[in-house]
């Protein structure tokens, strides 16, 4: 299983994106881009764009995080942050169970079949609900969708930059 968190600047991971202001006291709607939304409760500071900001308050509202930063106490000032990404150092990534990987570690891996033939590179990880699906783009531009199942994905070697898969048999309607 992969965990959501798109890559940011080298050595950093994105955990959210600033949305519109909320109220008049500088609160901002944060769109979480992490599977570990509870992480916001214990954070004291975060890099927003290229500025380290100190977190004064965190609340949850529907599927958003409402956050206020010490450096932006009023709505008009806070509004300038809209659209910026919240990132943390890679060392602050939430720990994963064995066999789990971050999405940003999967994207870019070279994908090979069991015979050693390169199929392409992971371009995206689609979240379908039941299981993730790896979107592979071959050199000729062909797209391959591979379900992130143990029966299909045999090896993920992040350090080696590769994934080995067994493609499912495709039935033909030619008969």
How does the overall form come out from the CA principal axes? elongated
Could you please say which CATH topology of the largest domain applies here? Elongation Factor Tu (Ef-tu), domain 3
Helix count, per DSSP?
Answer: 2
Query: Judging by the overall fold, what is the CATH architecture of the largest domain?
Result: Beta Barrel
What proportion strand?
over 45%
Report how far apart the termini are. Answer: 37 Å
How many domains, in number, for the residues? 2
Return the string of H and E elements: EEEEEEHEEHEEEEEE
CATH superfamily of the largest domain: RimM
* Biggest sheet, spatial arrangement of strands: 2-3-6-5-4-7
The CATH class assignment of the largest domain is Mainly Beta
Helix percentage = under 10%
What is the number of beta strands? 14
User: Over the alpha carbons, how many angstroms does the gyration radius reach?
Assistant: 20 Å
* Secondary-structure content class: mainly beta
Largest sheet, in brief, is: 6 strands, antiparallel, barrel
Average pLDDT figure: 87
Low-pLDDT runs of 5+ residues are: 1-8
Topology:
Elements: E1 2-3, E2 12-22, E3 27-32, E4 45-48, E5 51-61, E6 64-69, H1 75-78, E7 85-89, E8 101-102, H2 103-106, E9 110-113, E10 118-127, E11 132-137, E12 143-147, E13 153-157, E14 162-165
Parallel strand pairs: 1-8, 9-14
Antiparallel strand pairs: 2-3, 2-7, 3-6, 4-5, 4-7, 5-6, 9-10, 10-11, 11-12, 13-14
Give an account of the 3D structure.
This protein has 175 residues and is mainly beta. The protein folds into 2 domains: 2-92, Elongation Factor Tu (Ef-tu), domain 3; 101-165, PRC-barrel domain (SH3 type barrels), CATH 2.30.30. Helices cover 5% and strands 46% of the residues. The protein has 2 helices and 14 strands, in the order ββββββαββαββββββ. The chain has helices at 75-78, 103-106, and strands at residues 2-3, 12-22, 27-32, 45-48, 51-61, 64-69, 85-89, 101-102, 110-113, 118-127, 132-137, 143-147, 153-157, 162-165. β13 and β14 form a beta hairpin. Residues 1-8 have low confidence and may be disordered.
């Amino acid at each position: 299983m992969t965990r959501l968190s798109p890559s940011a600047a080298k050595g950093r991971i994105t955990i959210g994106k600033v949305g519109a202001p909320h109220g008049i006291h500088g609160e901002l709607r944060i769109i979480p881009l992490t599977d570990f939304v509870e992480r916001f409760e214990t954070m004291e500071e975060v890099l927003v764009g290229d500025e380290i900001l100190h977190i004064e308050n965190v609340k949850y509202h529907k599927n958003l995080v409402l956050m206020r930063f010490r450096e932006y106490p009023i709505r008009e000032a806070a509004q300038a942050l809209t659209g910026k990404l919240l990132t943390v150092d890679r060392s602050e990534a939430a720990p994963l169970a064995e066999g789990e990987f971050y999405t940003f570690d999967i994207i870019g891996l070279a994908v090979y079949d069991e015979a050693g033939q390169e199929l392409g590179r992971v371009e995206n990880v689609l979240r379908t609900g039941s299981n993730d699906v790896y979107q592979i783009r071959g050199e000729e531009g062909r797209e391959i969708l591979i379900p992130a199942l143990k029966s299909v994905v045999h090896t993920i070697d992040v350090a080696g930059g590769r994934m080995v898969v067994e493609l499912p048999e495709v039935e033909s309607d030619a008969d």
